[in-house]
Specification:
Shape: elongated
Largest sheet: 8 strands, antiparallel
Number of strands: 25
Helix content: 25-40%
Structural class: alpha+beta
Mean pLDDT: 93
Length: 596
Amino acid sequence: MNDTPPDRQGGPTPPTTHASSPWTLREYAFLGDGERGALVGPRGEMVWLCAPRWDSDAVFSTLIGGPGEYVLGPDDHWNVWGGYYEEGTLIHVGRWITGDSEIECREALAGPAAPDRLVVLRRIRAVRGDARIRLRLDARPGFGTHPMTGLRLEDDGTWSAQGGGLRLRLAGAADATPDGQGLLEARFTVAAGEARDLVLEIGTRAGAEELDPGRLWRATERHWAGVAPDCSGLAAPRDARHAYAILHGLTSASGAMVAAATTSLPERANGERNYDYRFAWIRDQCYAGLAVAAHGPHPLLDAGLSFMTERLLADGGELRPAYTVTGDPVARERALPLPGYPGGTDRVGNRAGRQFQLDSFGEILQLYAAAARLDRLDTDARRALDVAVDAVERNWTRPDAGLWELENHWWTHSRLCAVAGLRAAAHAVGGRAARDWDGLADTILRETRRRCLSPRGLWRRAEGDDGPEAALLLPLARGCLPPDDPSGPRTRRFIAERLSEDGYLYRFGHGDRPLGEAEGAFLLCGFMMALAAHHQRDPVTAFRWFERTRAACGSPGLFAEEYDVGQRQLRGNLPQAFVHAQLLEAAVRLSDDRAG
């Protein structure tokens, strides 16, 4: 995170007067194929897409005030919008009811994905009555700095163009009209009971094969068929399967999972906390892996473990908190000359990639312990586990930026995470190493208790800071303390008393300012509270927090980072991977209480 406004650069073409206006975040659906993601609004407008990869410049950036979008929906603003995901997938079906018709648009990013080329599939269908449809394609690479040029209709009825190092093809719209500046528009009618396919390809190379919608849809359906396992025995089966689909859609073939698909969506209107989350955070990757491991040895666990092992063996104790999905360093922050989402800014890059965050190593140890219990550690992963232990041993006394990426301090959460990770790894691996790791955990806990446990028996936020800190709930849920240690339940009750409002939980206090004035409730923390209550054998409280927190999503079932309790709105980037991961883990853990 960075509260210093970065320098600006110039150049994009401004959006046209026909560009779509933004909606509240709860209205957007997400399409993802692991290598990039798109947001689609209620009028069928695709307003966000980076190409060819997550951290590439945007081709469609209307979401943050730039040019570029892909609209396919009713040519009639007198309509009601709805939609749903086909279960266990990110195949989304948008629905509209107009004055005289019902229309559906089935849409997805085609799978399996290629890193240098994406394909958007959209099938518009007239369910009842004739459907009058509007098409508008305005691709603007480089956040609008490069309009598509050379737009032409090929002999096979496919449109082609190029710009900003990208090539574009569009099939299914031979009747569209170009404006001479890279924009395609069409209005057409789909007869009742009929459908029309459009296939959009964007990449650094143009595929040689025909853009056959039938073949591409069949491949995409096969791809999603095995992604989300059966969740019928969990506390929230539909939401848990949806979480699997979202985490898969955010996870690259490299195994790296981005924190979110977007950048610069504000956590508070006109504030400074607007960040770029199109990168893979080590901590978030661990949260997702632990959630999956709690349910079983599913492929997302192996994917994340592979990426983690590669990075640990390459970087050792200098492991960065965040990387691109290709394992490269995260770019420094800069700003674009765009208006931003209303109340937000237009930052890309993130300085967190250069911080030291001790708690990440604790979460890594938890992940490797979970993998060991499922017999998923190969020789390289076992070596990487030793690297992580060594990093904790060398650095646990060193001040760090912590989970919230603030100033370097002796954060209690970071130390307790290290303790929980060491204990979990020792228990899972056993042998002589386990005795050494348990001893190191005892040493860290003893010193942390001396510095950070208040005379009231409550865990402080940090050395010298007695304020409540919701992040402490996670190591308490992970078993950093003996079961009979009273400081755990006392701290959980203190956090609930001081940081909750209307059943939602905030991260920490901001001086004398009321909760909700400085920032929204943090949805990650609500699920942490559910996990901590479950661990402390308080199932009623655990379910209450779980159910309240999972209600804070938009109609497509997506969670952002924060929730504005007063206005009942999502805040921050979308969809937020670690919130969906914690929902999944809580659904698994709480299913044990439900069965009992």
